């Protein structure tokens, strides 16, 4: 049977539909090929593809290759920017990651870091409209709204005097939940019971601090308070505190010791911090006791102190304090003030919380990823005379060698030499290298390898505060730093730091390569590229980095500095110093995301 030739109009319409689709796809592919090869769209899409590859966690080999190229100086372009939604990213406090963890003892709100190969290798961008921060001391009272446009606290807590939006600024009247009329009258009330003036008290810890108005108000009394709060539903408490120029740190009291040495703080404060001090057989009260210097003061305001429907919790809190022989100084409304005994706690053999003294093998200053212990730290476990009232008053304690310096061999002599060395070095930084130290442009300072805190001590007359970081794998010298009236934390620099992006004006590190090496070994545990990308995350645009190390290390650091968009110069060390050190001084450029991101 022959084929029947129908007119075009009579052919099967489904055949034409299929043919049309195939033809359209073919011409579409040709057009796409033309666009990719011959137009800027191809470049843009390739850049997006590179970023997707860069941000991918599925191929560690690609990441390792990029790190090697950057270290060798063969990666001629800057490291890519992270996506726009990462402007406030903290790798170890990522709610999306941590929300899967247990709620027991707030485990899910503690630090939980991704493995290095799981972290994108990219630079955190500033938010749209970001401005160089308001300078100190004006920043204590107002900051740019556009630098952290998070209105949740202002909306929820404005009536309590926390903060308010006013034109292009957030303003801080100085209030808090327990002191809506401002911290000053509240501090004046505490001053009736505690020696807040005269240098007796110097280091303080403010737990669950809000926007840190309490810590900010204590600065005028010569008291250096480190404020902490977790990353929580208010989103940015600590970010606001640091933008104001107040010492602060992202932290949660959960399953581990807080990253501070024993007997660090002369004064510990909780204003409606809602820490369940007597839960888990008083484990959290015991941790506060570990941190509080003998003879120091503990202040708790708000629940459960004489609080409605919390009679049992209030009774239990008083019972724990009695078991540890704390002296009740006052109960004033919803505020209780205790004084810790100067000597060892008078723990009875039997108490309702089952508390006993820690054994000799327990180093009370070991506090990096160290599980909480339900035992009481004895004062004899730390050598030296350090109780409040016996330790020299501020500022004399700054330069007095404390007995805790003996944690390293010849510690007292090393302490004195270290103090003299850093006085010389900081003078060279200011007078020869012309760094901005001492100017209003520098407020928040970090020393990444602090040892005895000599760098921070040499800055004591400047309008700065210094976060002294003692690497967790090095000798535990952080107790010395607190004994001299300075503050700091333990940290391992193979992990990201617990702070928001853009929170430090000036970052200093002597011996950067030692931060990534195994102690006593030439083998690296992590790499300088990741470390410097993390430094860039913490540093504010136009902020300064100073790195001291051998010429070989400084050359490598200079190559990486180019890749993280810093402008850097290499300088000779001060003439009085021995050794082969060079000094790299770098400035973070103020770059912004392009529309293609």
UniProtKB/TrEMBL annotation:
Entry's localization field? Endomembrane system; Membrane
Give the Enzyme Commission number. Answer: 2.1.1.-
Q: Which GO terms describe its biological process?
A: methylation
Keyword Methyltransferase among UniProt keywords: yes
Q: Which domain of life is it from?
A: Eukaryota
Please tell me whether the keyword Mitochondrion is annotated for this protein.
no
Q: Chief subcellular site?
A: membrane
Q: Name one GO cellular component term.
A: trans-Golgi network
Q: Example GO molecular function term?
A: S-adenosylmethionine-dependent methyltransferase activity
Q: Which InterPro entries match?
A: Put_SAM_MeTrfase, SAM-dependent_MTases_sf
Q: Where do transmembrane segments lie in this chain?
A: 21-41
Membrane topology classification: Single-pass membrane protein; Single-pass type II membrane protein
Alphabetically sorted, this entry's keywords are:
Glycoprotein, Membrane, Methyltransferase, Signal-anchor, Transferase, Transmembrane, Transmembrane helix
Q: Which Pfam families match?
A: Methyltransf_29
Q: Which Gene3D superfamilies match?
A: Vaccinia Virus protein VP39
At the top of the EC hierarchy, this enzyme's class is: transferase
Protein family (similarity comment): Belongs to the methyltransferase superfamily.
Kindly provide the name given to this protein in its UniProt entry.
Answer: Methyltransferase
Task: Specify the taxonomic lineage.
Answer: Eukaryota, Viridiplantae, Streptophyta, Embryophyta, Tracheophyta
């Amino acid at each position: 049977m022959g084929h029947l030739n129908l007119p075009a109009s009579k052919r099967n319409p489904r055949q034409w539909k299929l043919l049309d689709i195939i033809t359209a796809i073919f011409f579409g592919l040709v057009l796409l090929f033309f666009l990719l090869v011959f137009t800027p769209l191809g470049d843009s899409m390739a850049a997006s593809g590179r970023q997707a590859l860069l941000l991918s966690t599925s191929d560690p080999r690609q990441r390792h290759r990029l790190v090697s190229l950057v270290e060798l100086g063969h990666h001629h372009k800057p490291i890519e920017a992270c996506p726009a939604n990462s402007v406030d990213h903290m790798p170890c406090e990522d709610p999306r990651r941590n929300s899967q963890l247990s709620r027991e003892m707030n485990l899910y709100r503690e630090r939980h870091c991704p493995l290095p190969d799981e972290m994108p290798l990219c630079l955190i961008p500033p938010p749209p409209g970001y401005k160089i921060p308001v300078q100190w001391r004006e920043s204590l009272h107002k900051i740019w709204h556009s630098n952290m446009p998070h209105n949740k606290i202002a909306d929820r807590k404005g009536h309590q005097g926390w903060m308010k939006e006013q034109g292009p600024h957030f303003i801080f009247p100085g209030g808090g939940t327990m002191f809506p009329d401002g911290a000053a009258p509240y501090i004046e009330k505490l001053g009736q019971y505690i020696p807040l003036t005269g240098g007796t008290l110097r280091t303080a810890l403010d737990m669950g601090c809000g926007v840190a108005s309490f810590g900010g108000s204590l600065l005028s009394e010569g008291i250096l308070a480190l404020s902490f709060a977790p990353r929580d539903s208010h989103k940015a408490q600590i970010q606001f505190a640091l933008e104001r120029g107040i010492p602060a740190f992202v932290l949660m009291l959960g399953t581990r010791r807080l990253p501070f040495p024993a007997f660090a703080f002369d004064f510990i404060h909780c204003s409606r911090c809602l820490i369940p001090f007597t839960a888990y057989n008083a484990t959290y009260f015991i941790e506060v006791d570990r941190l509080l210097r003998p003879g120091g003061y503990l202040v708790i305001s708000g629940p459960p102190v004489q609080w409605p429907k919390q009679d049992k919790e209030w009774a239990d809190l008083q019972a724990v304090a009695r078991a540890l022989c704390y002296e009740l100084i006052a109960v004033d409304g919803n505020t209780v003030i205790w004084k810790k005994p100067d000597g060892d706690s008078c723990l009875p053999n039997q108490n309702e919380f089952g508390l006993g003294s820690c054994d000799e093998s327990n180093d009370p200053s070991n506090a990096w990823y160290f599980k909480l212990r339900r035992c009481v730290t004895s004062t004899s476990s730390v050598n030296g005379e350090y109780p409040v009232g016996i330790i020299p008053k501020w500022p004399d304690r700054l330069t007095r060698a404390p007995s805790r310096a003996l944690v390293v061999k010849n510690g007292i002599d090393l302490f004195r030499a270290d103090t003299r060395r850093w006085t010389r070095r900081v003078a060279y930084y200011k007078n020869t290298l012309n760094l901005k130290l001492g100017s209003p442009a520098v407020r928040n300072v970090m020393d990444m390898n602090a040892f005895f805190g000599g760098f921070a001590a040499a800055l004591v007359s400047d309008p700065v505060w210094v976060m002294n970081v003692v690497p967790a794998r090095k000798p535990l010298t952080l107790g010395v730093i607190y004994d001299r009236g300075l503050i700091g934390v333990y940290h391992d620099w193979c992990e990201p730091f617990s702070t928001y992006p853009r929170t430090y004006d000036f970052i200093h590190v002597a011996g950067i390569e030692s931060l990534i090496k195994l102690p006593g070994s030439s083998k690296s545990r992590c790499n300088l590229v990741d470390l410097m990308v993390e430094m860039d995350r913490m540093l504010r645009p136009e902020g300064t980095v100073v790195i001291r190390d051998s010429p070989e290390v400084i050359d490598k650091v200079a190559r990486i500095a180019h890749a993280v968009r810093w402008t850097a110069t290499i300088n000779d060390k001060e003439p009085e110093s021995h050794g082969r050190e060079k000094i790299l001084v770098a400035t973070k450029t103020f770059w912004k995301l392009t529309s293609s991101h």
